[in-house]
Structure formats: C-alpha cells, structure tokens
Design brief:
Number of helices: 3
Number of strands: 5
Order of helices and strands: HEEEHHEE
Radius of gyration: 13 Å
Strand content: 15-25%
GO molecular function, one term: catalytic activity
Strand order of the largest sheet: 1-2-3-5-4
Pfam families: HIT (PF01230)
Protein name: HIT domain-containing protein
CATH topology: HIT family, subunit A
Organism: Nocardioides flavescens
C-alpha cells in the first residue's frame, strides 16, 4: 500500500523505534503510549485488520503473538501484559494495517474502556 504508514515503517521509509523484528513481523514503540511499555507488532505484509491477516497468512498471525510475547519479556513483563487488536474505526483502529498492541508496566484495569 503506497500510502500506508505502517508499510512505510516496515520498508524503512519512515523512522521508528524498532525493538524486535522477525521474518514476518516488525515491532516498534507506539508514538502515543498508553502504558510504560506500548509496542505495536505489525506483519511485514499489508493486511487491513486481524481477521484479514488470519485468513490471508495464518502463520504471520500466530507470529504476531509470539513476537508480542518476546517483546513483553524483553521489556521486563514476561507474565503481566495485555495484547489488543482494534478492528475498524468504531473500535479505535486508526491505521488500517493490522497491528497488535503490547501493553505493560502498569496495572491494566478491566473493562479496558
């Protein structure tokens, strides 16, 4: 996608604070963190949302979660972290390239609101 912010980050066209990479994923710090650890994990290939990714590349879908766990562990939160997918504008998705939020480093209440 020519105008996709996360595709440009994956391609190295836009700088980001990258904390972890794999063959299928790139993880970088969120510019508007909602917790002391707030990292986004994205697939290298463009998919608009989590359901589209799961249908189109289930291996990459699973790798997002394993990458998120590696990031949480590296950030010092191996046992207490939250993973969030927002799908659609009504759920808060603002960049329409699948991304998994990794949140940790503070108490995360429920419901998330």
């Amino acid at each position: 996608m020519d105008d996709c912010l996360f595709c440009k980050i994956v391609a190295g066209e836009i700088p980001a604070d990258v904390v972890h990479t794999t063959e299928r994923t790139v993880a970088f710090r969120d510019l508007n963190p909602q917790a002391p650890t707030h990292v986004l994990v994205v697939p290298r290939q463009h998919f608009a949302n989590a359901a589209e990714l799961a249908a189109g590349d289930p291996v990459a879908s699973a790798e997002l979660v394993t990458t998120a766990a590696a990031v949480a562990t590296a950030e010092g939160h191996p046992d207490d972290y939250r993973l969030v997918f927002n799908t659609g504008a009504g759920a808060g998705q603002t960049v329409f390239h699948t991304h998994l939020h990794v949140l940790g480093g503070r108490d995360l209440g429920w419901p998330p609101g």
